[in-house]
C-alpha cells in the first residue's frame, strides 16, 4: 500500500504542478510578467567567481589554490540523485561507502587524504549522514577546494572526524532572490534492468514588497527501486521513499542591509544496503553483482532539519559585514545484515579462492543495528575590507570569529565546542597577488561517557597557517603556488592502554601550477602537489588505536580544462594522478606504496548546441569517467593482493530539445539520456574489502522540465 501511494504521488507530482503553472500563466501579466523564451540553454561548466577558497568572491584563475566547481547547469545535466553521485564526477575524490553503516557517512577523501565534512557556504557543516541524502537539485553550485584548508575553515577534531588534510567541499544552496518571479518544474523517470526511479521537483520564487522581498520554496520527491531489492534474499523489499522541502526568505531592510533565512527538511526511508565482498575485481563470497546481504525488512531511515539565518551589511563602500548562524539536527536509524567476514584459516582460504569455506554469507554484529541523533550549531561574523591603495595596490582583509558546537548520541560524536578566529590578507599589485592567513582554534571537549568509558573535560588549541602567490604576467597566463597546513587535535581518542594524544595531527601541502587560456572563455590548469601528514592515529586489526605517530604522504598531479570552446560548445575535463605512501610500513613491504585509491582518475563532460536547420536548439551532451585499478582495504590498510577493483569506464549520453519540436510549448524542455551506456559492471565505493558497493547498471532516462 505504501509503495503504491508513494509511486502515485511521485508520478502525479509534476502533472499537478504543471496544471498549477498553466493556470498561473493564464494571468501572466498580473502574476509573472513577460515570459521570454530563448530556446534550449547551453550548459555552462565554469563559474565567473568562487568563494570557498578565500571567503571572498574571486575569479578561479586568480587564486593560488585549485578549486573545482560543479555549476548548476552541470548538476542539472548529470542529474545526480545525491551528493555522493555528484562527487564521483570529480577525479581524486573518494568515499568510504554509500551507507549509514559507514563510520563517517557522507564524507569524502580528497587527494588521498581525509577531507572535511561538507559544509553550507563553507561554514556550516551539514551533519552526520546528510551527504548520502542531499538532493543536488537544491544546490546552486558545489566548490571543491583542494589541499589542507584548516587555515580558512578550521580542522575538525573528534573521535569520528580527524579530517581536513585533503580539502573541503562547499555547498551553496539555491535560495530566495529578488531578480524575478519564477516557477521551475522537473520530472525524471529512469528505467534499467531490475531498477526503476521516479523523481519530481518544483522550484517557486515569488517577489513581494515591490521587489524588496522574496520567498522561494523548493521541493523534491524520489521513489526508487534499486537492483538489489529485485533479486537475492532482499527480493521484494519496499523501495526507497524520500522527499525534501527547502523554503527560504530574503528581504532588503535598507539600501545597505539584506537579510534572509534558509531552511530545509529531509526525509528518507530506504532499504538497507552495505555492499558485497570483492575478489579479483568481481563480487566474492558467492555473491552476484547486484545482490545484497541485507534482509527484506532491513531499512535505513534518515531525517534532517536545518535553519540558517543570515544578514549582509555594506557598512561603507569598502567594508562588508556578514553575519550567519545555523542549526542542523539529524536523526537516523538502520538495521542491516553484513556480508560474512571470516577469520583465521577461513579468511586465508577466502584470500586464495574468493569463497568462505564454511559456506556462510551473512552475519550480524553490534554495528548492524544502530540509531543516532546529531546536533550541530554554528555562529559567525565575517568582516571583509577591500581598499584601492596608491601605486595600483588593492588590499582585501578578512577577519572572521566563529563558534561551532556538535554532538551525537550513540557513541558516534564527541560533544565538542570550537572557538575560531580567522585572519587573512590578500594584496594585489600589477602582476602579483600575495595571499596570507592563519586560523586559531580553541577546542573544548565536554565530559561524557561512551561504551562504558569516561571521558573528562579536555581543552586544547590549534594554529593553522597558509600562504599563496599568483603571478599573471599576461592576461592568458597565470603561475600559482601555495604552502598550507592544517592542525587538528584528536579529541576523544585513547589507545588500548588508555593513553590520550598530546599533540595534534598535521597535514602540510606544497603545491605549484600554471593556468593557460587558449581561447576567450576556456582555461587549462596544471598543478602538482605533495601532502605530508604526521601524528595520525594508527589502527590495529580490531579497530583499536595502537599509537598516534602514524605518518603518510600523498603526492600527485592534476590537469583540468573548463569553459566554452565556442559560444555553442562547452567542456569540462579533469585528470588526477595520486600516489599514497604509508610511511609506517617498512620500505619494500607491500602496503607502504599501493593503490589505496585509484592512481589515475579522469572525467570528461561536454555539451553542444546546434543553431542551424532542423537541429536548431537541440543540445547533445556526453560524459565519460575512468578509474584505474585500486585495492580494497581494511580501515585504510592493505589486506591482500587478490582484493582489488578492476579499472572502470562509464559513458553517459543525453539529448535535450524544446517540446515545440513535437508541437508543444517552447517553455518545456525534453531530455533523453542513457547512463552507463555500455553497461559497465564496477564498484563505485567501499567501506571494507567485504563491504563494497556496486555502480548502477545501464539505465534509460527521460526528463521534462520547464521554467515560467
Topology:
Elements: H1 2-26, H2 28-31, E1 67-71, H3 72-78, H4 83-87, E2 93-95, E3 108-110, E4 113-114, E5 119-120, E6 124-125, E7 139-146, H5 150-153, E8 167-173, E9 182-192, E10 195-208, E11 213-225, E12 240-252, E13 257-271, E14 278-279, E15 282-283, E16 299-314, E17 319-335, E18 338-339, H6 344-353, E19 362-363, E20 369-389, E21 393-408, E22 413-429, E23 432-445, E24 448-450, E25 453-455, E26 458-474, E27 477-488, E28 505-519, E29 521-539, E30 545-566, E31 569-582, E32 600-609, E33 619-627, E34 630-631, E35 633-634, E36 637-638, E37 644-645, E38 648-658, E39 668-675, E40 683-686, E41 692-694, E42 699-707
Parallel strand pairs: 5-8
Antiparallel strand pairs: 1-7, 2-3, 3-4, 5-6, 7-8, 9-10, 9-42, 10-11, 11-12, 12-13, 13-16, 14-15, 16-17, 17-20, 18-19, 20-21, 21-22, 22-23, 23-26, 24-25, 26-27, 27-28, 28-29, 29-30, 30-31, 31-32, 32-33, 33-38, 34-37, 35-36, 38-39, 39-42, 40-41
Description of the structure:
It is built from six helices and 42 strands. The strands form nine sheets. It has a 22-stranded antiparallel beta barrel. A hairpin with a 2-residue loop joins strand 3 (108-110) and strand 4. The chain starts with a helix and ends with a strand. The model is unreliable at 1-39 and 157-162 (pLDDT under 50).
Please describe the structure with a list of short key phrases separated by commas or semicolons:
mainly beta, 708 residues, 22-stranded antiparallel β-barrel, globular, single chain, 42 strands, Maltoporin, Chain A, 5-stranded mixed sheet
